[in-house]
Write a structure and sequence with these properties.
- It is a single chain.
- Helix content is about 50%, strand content about 15%.
- It is α+β, with helices and mostly antiparallel strands and about 400 residues long.
- It has three domains: about 100 residues, no CATH class; about 110 residues, Butyryl-CoA Dehydrogenase, subunit A, domain 2, CATH 2.40.110.10; about 150 residues, Butyryl-CoA Dehydrogenase, subunit A, domain 3 (Up-down Bundle).
- The strands form three sheets. A four-stranded mixed beta sheet has the order 1-4-5-8. Strands 2-3-7-6 form a four-stranded antiparallel beta sheet, with no helix packed on it. A two-stranded antiparallel sheet has the order 9-10.
- Strand 2 and strand 3 form a beta hairpin.
- Helix 5 runs parallel beside helix 8, helix 8 packs parallel to helix 10 and helix 10 packs across helix 12.
- The chain binds flavin-adenine dinucleotide.
- The site of flavin-adenine dinucleotide has 18 residues, from strand 1, strand 3 and helix 12.
Amino acid sequence: MTLELDIELEELLDGLRRFVTAEVLPREEAMQEVLADPRKIYDEAGRYTQQIMDARREIREAAAEAGFYQMFVPTELGGGGQGAVALYAVWEDLYHRWGMAHWLAFDSVAHWATGPSQLFLEASDRVQREVFPLLMAGKKTLCFAMSEPDAGSDLWMMTTSARRDGAGWRINGTKQWMTNGPYADYALVFAVTDAEASAQRKGGLSAFLVPTTEPGYQVDSLIKIYGHIGSNEAIVSLTDTWVPDDAILGSLNNGLQLGLAGTTLGRLYNSARSVGLSRWALETALEYAKVRTTFGTPIIDYQGVSFPLVDRSIELLGAHLMGLHAARLLDAGRSAVAEAAMAKICSTEVAGRTIDQAVQALGGMGLTNEVHLTKAWQELRAVRIADGSAEILRRLLVGRLQKGAVPL
Ligand SMILES: Cc1cc2nc3c(=O)[nH]c(=O)nc-3n(C[C@H](O)[C@H](O)[C@H](O)COP(=O)(O)OP(=O)(O)OC[C@H]3O[C@@H](n4cnc5c(N)ncnc54)[C@H](O)[C@@H]3O)c2cc1C
């Protein structure tokens, strides 16, 4: 598969591969015994152990020193200023090259919802001065707190509210599903600040940067999802948690715009990692099928094995081109909301089929923890729900089609 990337981007990918080889793999090697056993990755409560947390922080800090961690942060904020095509290519390459066996490698680059990002262009001077450098250096992390128990697909059902109190805001409510929620130092909390506008689904939401050490902020529980004995997602409550005015990111009552800018990047990221992991799974299957023989013949020679893999590779190329197309439009200054939605639907659904087919090609071996294929399937199954479910994105596209616009 050719990416037809320019030479500078190829060099960037090459540099990142060398960084992972030098900084991540030796750490993994030293922790081999821990990483091979989920009971040693998580503590009894289901949180990452201190050893895992330390390793992840060290990787973030080393990547920040090397300039990889913050490469997608705009130059105005001191980042590398890399655009959407680079974002797509970097995440695709990370997941393709390292697969699920080397998941610590994914901490080498900041994700918009858990680390520094362009969203902080909208932060106050104080936040940019006091908080942002800690995120940029990989010392502190963030979580994105939009969803609630009764507000998932329909975010207008949000009940978390912020009311004026002195020179700031008092926030009350419960947030659910926050990735990195159990560990984050700061939460970007979305709350209703104008109940009337929100009830009319016309705005009235604001985004607040809340230190997770503030009184009233509490991680209520960890959400363990299928196949994991620990968690990266949390339910969090805020009870009369106070933040000053300048904790608002973006402008008052316009938090939704900020959230949407982030989710488009998120959909591109999820497209890239779906394609990357699918490619890795397909290559794993092909390698195995060339050496595994039954009835005196390598199984790759049976069309019952090879044709489904060919079909998946055809679909995968389509998904990949869709992701790149959305990224190129974003770099050209277009919003690419529809194209990013299409890329995310296509890539996540193709990934489900591709990884499943790879498991089938490996027979019983495909089910073992040794090859990590089922871990990849688990990882990507969640993405058909998170970050705009497949149905909600189709709903968005119906709206576009009804206006007569077929995005081509
Ligand atoms: C692993 C994971 C990580 C997440 N991380 C975050 C995070 O960091 N921050 C955050 O804020 N949120 C996060 N989320 C929440 C995620 O955004 C929501 O799960 C998602 O928006 C769906 O909401 P829901 O789970 O409440 O499902 P619901 O909204 O209850 O939907 C249930 C089902 O009905 C379908 N459905 C709903 N409405 C319609 C409709 N009109 N037409 C057709 N089908 C419909 C949905 O597609 C879904 O299949 C995460 C979720 C997961 C699983």
